[in-house]
């Protein structure tokens, strides 16, 4: 009888009277005269199971001295709980110690800071808060596949190694097998990439979009969901060097349809998480409430805020209108909002948090703020770009209608001083059976930040990679 039952299933099915086996980690232990209690979590759910055991147990002395974080296997009967707070508990018949723990265990019961837990990233999955965050992350991944799958999108695995700087921002990590102490040079003294593993310079991808476009222009609609890498030197609560992105790409789609899909996707993510992880959402909300109290801040329940977003229409304005709103707002910004300059986080947050008090889609940015592939508007100044901005985070989605006109695309590539050669295949999409098409990229961690209300992106990815930090 040592087949393990999940604590999640015990609470769901309430198998009163059955003898079962659970395995998990000790959250607390308390010994009184006649009975001892331990609280066990096995990661399957937010709920913990209370185990009651009595001093007659053969290894009672050892078990009763166990410390928080120890790992045990318990066999016993599921009974209705005597205490308040939970419906069922387990009356232990036998407790096997799988892995005991000592005083040096860093996660003691007292509240530990998120900063400290980032240094204990290997152990933080055992905490109440991080269990909740990462179960929600899982559900958001499942929601993504369901959302796009149900709408006829095919899941595409775009490559991670690439020879093109698809965003043209020069923020790529090089991939090399060269001996860094002895780099092969050409006669001109430049790095001789022909001696590289791939015979050319390669990097980790910053996006899978260009490859997704190839597949959209054949399969109709696809989405990628994979890791992307950016060597931007941004030490902020919303930038990671390695993050996950979901990139849908659709043929026969303009920017309006693209924006509609983006809004529907975000709303679907919220609804799905509400349905699948209400306990997790509540646990995180409790955490925020506790933090607000500690910091003497007003507590705003993010569950209630999201509940409204779930059923609301996303506001939509053009970049030019947004600059107008910002410059006439009377608000003092660190960076003065100015037409022609990319919106700063403070501008994005002002729009979403103070002006619209909800998600907003900003469209038609100046072409010089955006990548080469975006469809050019007739005004000669702007492109059919869209960013989705949300309260608390700012930009969580960036997307656009793509330039489908061969001549215009080539001209833009030249204007921007980019090398055409590595993009020959991308350019050919416009030569052979071109069509209107659009897509966007959702930063997965930014979306998780939005839905969990966590303030730092490092707390919603299992192991964060940021400038000067690649531990674990
Ligand atoms: O706006 P970005 O750069 O757009 C693209 O990469 C396009 N190729 C997407 C497309 O049209 N298919 O990035 C998209 C999203 C951003 O809105 C943001 O949420 C996230 O990716 N993102 C980051 N997330 C974490 N850390 C970073 N350093 C990020 N950079 C972008
Ligand atoms: Mg962007």
Structural class: alpha+beta
Helical run tally: 13
Radius of gyration: 27 Å
Distance between the first and last residues' Cα: 36 Å
What are the low-pLDDT stretches, counting only 5+ consecutive residues below 50? none
Major sheet: arrangement of strands: 6-10-11-16-15-14-13-12
Q: Strand count, sense and closure of the main sheet?
A: 8 strands, mixed
- Shape call: elongated
What percent of residues are in strands? 15-25%
From N to C, what is the helix and strand string?
A: HEEEHEEHHEEEEHEEHHHEHHEEEHHEH
The hetero compounds bound to this protein are: 4-amino-1,4-dioxobutan-2-aminium adenosine-5'-monophosphate, magnesium ion
Q: What is the residue-mean pLDDT, rounded to a whole number?
A: 96
Outline the structure in words.
The structure is a single chain. The chain has 472 residues and is of the alpha+beta class. The chain contains 13 helices and 16 strands. It has an eight-stranded mixed sheet, with helices on both faces. A five-stranded mixed barrel has the order 1-2-3-5-4. A hairpin with a 4-residue loop joins strand 1 (19-31) and strand 2 (36-41). Bound molecules: 4-amino-1,4-dioxobutan-2-aminium adenosine-5'-monophosphate and magnesium ion (MG). Magnesium ion binds next to strand 15.
Feature tags:
single chain, 31% helix, binds magnesium ion, 16 strands, eight-stranded mixed beta sheet, alpha+beta, binds 4-amino-1,4-dioxobutan-2-aminium adenosine-5'-monophosphate, 472 residues
Helices and strands, with pairings:
Blueprint: H1 7-13, E1 19-31, E2 36-41, E3 49-53, H2 60-64, E4 71-80, E5 88-99, H3 114-118, H4 128-150, E6 154-156, E7 161-162, E8 174-175, E9 202-204, H5 209-219, E10 221-229, E11 242-251, H6 255-276, H7 278-294, H8 302-310, E12 315-318, H9 319-327, H10 345-355, E13 360-366, E14 382-390, E15 394-401, H11 406-415, H12 424-431, E16 437-443, H13 444-452
Parallel strand pairs: 3-5, 6-10, 12-13
Antiparallel strand pairs: 1-2, 1-4, 2-3, 4-5, 7-9, 8-9, 10-11, 11-16, 13-14, 14-15, 15-16
Helix pairs in contact: 4-6, 4-7, 6-8
The structure holds 4-amino-1,4-dioxobutan-2-aminium adenosine-5'-monophosphate and magnesium ion (MG).
């Amino acid at each position: 009888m040592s087949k393990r039952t999940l604590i999640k299933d015990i609470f769901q099915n309430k198998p009163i009277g059955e003898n079962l086996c659970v395995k998990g980690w000790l959250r607390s232990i308390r010994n009184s005269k006649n009975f001892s209690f331990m609280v066990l979590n096995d990661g399957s759910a937010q709920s913990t199971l209370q185990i009651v055991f009595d001093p007659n147990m053969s290894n009672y002395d050892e078990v009763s001295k166990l410390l928080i974080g120890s790992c045990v296997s318990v066999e016993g009967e599921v009974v209705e709980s005597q205490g308040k707070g939970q419906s069922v508990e387990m009356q232990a018949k036998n407790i096997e110690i799988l892995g005991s723990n000592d005083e040096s265990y860093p996660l003691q019961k007292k509240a530990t800071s998120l900063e400290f837990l980032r240094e204990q990233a290997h152990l933080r999955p055992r905490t109440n808060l991080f269990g909740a965050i990462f179960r929600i992350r899982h559900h958001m991944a499942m929601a993504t596949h369901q959302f796009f799958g149900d709408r006829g999108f095919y899941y595409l695995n775009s490559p991670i190694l690439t020879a093109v700087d698809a965003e043209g921002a020069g923020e790529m990590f090089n991939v090399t097998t060269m001996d860094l102490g002895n780099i092969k040079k050409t006669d001109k003294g430049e790095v001789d990439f022909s001696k590289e593993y791939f015979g050319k310079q390669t990097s980790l991808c910053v996006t899978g979009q260009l490859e997704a476009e190839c597949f959209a222009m054949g399969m109709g609609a696809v989405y990628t969901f994979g890791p992307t890498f950016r060597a931007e030197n941004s030490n902020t609560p919303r930038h990671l060097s390695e993050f996950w992105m979901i990139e849908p790409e659709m043929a026969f789609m303009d920017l309006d349809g693209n924006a509609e899909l983006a809004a529907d996707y975000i709303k679907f993510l919220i609804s799905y998480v509400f349905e699948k992880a209400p306990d997790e959402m509540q646990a995180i909300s409790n955490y925020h409430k506790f933090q607000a109290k500690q910091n003497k801040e007003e507590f705003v329940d993010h569950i209630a805020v999201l509940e409204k977003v779930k059923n609301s229409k996303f506001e939509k304005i053009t970049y030019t209108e947004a600059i107008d709103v910002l410059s006439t707002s009377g608000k003092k910004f660190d960076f003065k909002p100015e037409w022609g300059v990319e919106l700063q986080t403070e501008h994005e947050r002002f729009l979403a948090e103070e002006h619209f008090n909800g998600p907003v889609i900003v469209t038609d940015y100046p072409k010089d703020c955006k990548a080469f592939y975006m469809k050019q508007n007739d005004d000669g100044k702007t492109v059919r770009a869209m960013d989705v901005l949300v309260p608390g985070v700012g930009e969580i989605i960036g997307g656009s209608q793509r330039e489908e006109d061969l001549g215009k695309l080539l001209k833009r590539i030249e204007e921007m001083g980019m090398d055409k050669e590595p993009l020959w295949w991308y350019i050919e999409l416009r030569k052979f059976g071109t069509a209107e098409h659009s897509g966007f990229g959702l930063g997965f961690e930014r979306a998780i930040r939005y839905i969990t209300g966590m303030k730092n992106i490092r707390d919603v990815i299992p192991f964060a990679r940021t400038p000067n930090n690649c531990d674990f």
